[in-house]
Specification:
By secondary structure, the protein is mainly α. Helix content is 77%, strand content 0%. It is built from twelve helices and no strands. α3 packs antiparallel against α12. The two termini are 25 Å apart.
Length: 263
């Protein structure tokens, strides 16, 4: 019996690699090429548009880099908070004893996705008038993007073959060790997909933080609309799209190279 269960666990982590894991990596070069092409097109377009003095002030490198840093901070901090909460909670909800509370917690997680992102940000800004805009935006982004990481963690663990879990327990593994060495490695591809979605969501929605004074590249979009500065509006929009594509590309790399061997 011991030999059989050991073999089962070994099979769980040493199955034949999926096509996506072994296929050519050439397609991973497409996104960087698109980002570079978009950057070149943006540079050429801005130069050709001959922006006026007011627009030039909004396009100064130091100003744009400051907004870019704020945007990355908003997305990064909210993503860290989401992952620190969603992954442990997702693991807990995937256990058999959590079935009664799962619907309630998923319902709370659905609130952010069920309401428009701008609505979540504005409502929180009204509810928390004394809080710093940055942290209001972080809370809103976290609420809005928690569902993909939470749901994918649960689904990934729930789709692990129960026979493999029982095999691990059968050879003397504790519940924690079985989770770490059998369940999480097998659930990793689905979990990574949820994390990738969360990161991209945060980068895109962070543009709305500008409407409550939290900074970010959304300020360029807001200023472009308010002052009818199309060059500034387009620049801000393209930069956010490029940043989102870059994060999505990094997520694709993580899905390909961080997944356990053979999964």
């Amino acid at each position: 019996m011991t030999v059989t269960t050991e073999a089962a666990v070994e099979v769980a982590t040493d199955v034949a690699p999926s096509p996506s894991a072994t296929g050519s990596a050439w397609h991973l070069l497409i996104t960087p090429a698109i980002i570079v092409a978009a950057g070149i097109a943006l540079f050429v377009g801005v130069r050709a548009a001959e922006p006026n003095e007011s627009e030039l002030r909004s396009l100064e490198a130091s100003f744009v880099l400051r907004l870019l840093g704020q945007h990355i901070s908003l997305a990064a901090v909210s993503s860290v908070i989401v992952l620190a909460v969603a992954i442990p909670v997702g693991i807990a909800l995937s256990r058999k004893g959590a079935r009664l509370v799962t619907p309630a917690i998923l319902g709370i997680a659905n609130i952010g996705q069920g309401a428009p992102a701008i609505g979540v940000i504005v409502i929180l800004a009204v509810i928390l008038p004394t809080a710093a805009p940055f942290w209001v935006a972080i809370l809103a982004l976290s609420l809005y993007s928690v569902l993909p990481a939470l749901r994918n963690t649960m689904v990934g663990l729930q789709q692990v073959d129960p026979a493999l879990v029982e095999a691990g327990r059968g050879i003397g593994m504790s519940a924690t060790r079985t989770l770490l060495t059998v369940e999480l490695p097998l659930a990793a591809p689905i979990m990574l997909a949820g994390i990738r979605t969360t990161l991209v969501l945060n980068v895109g929605v962070a543009a709305l933080a500008a409407f409550i004074g939290a900074g970010g590249l959304g300020e360029m979009i807001a200023a472009g609309v308010k002052l009818q500065q199309n060059v500034v509006l387009i620049t801000g929009s393209v930069l956010i799209a490029m940043l989102a594509l870059g994060i999505d590309w990094l997520g694709a790399l993580a899905e390909r190279y961080l997944r356990p061997k053979g999964v």
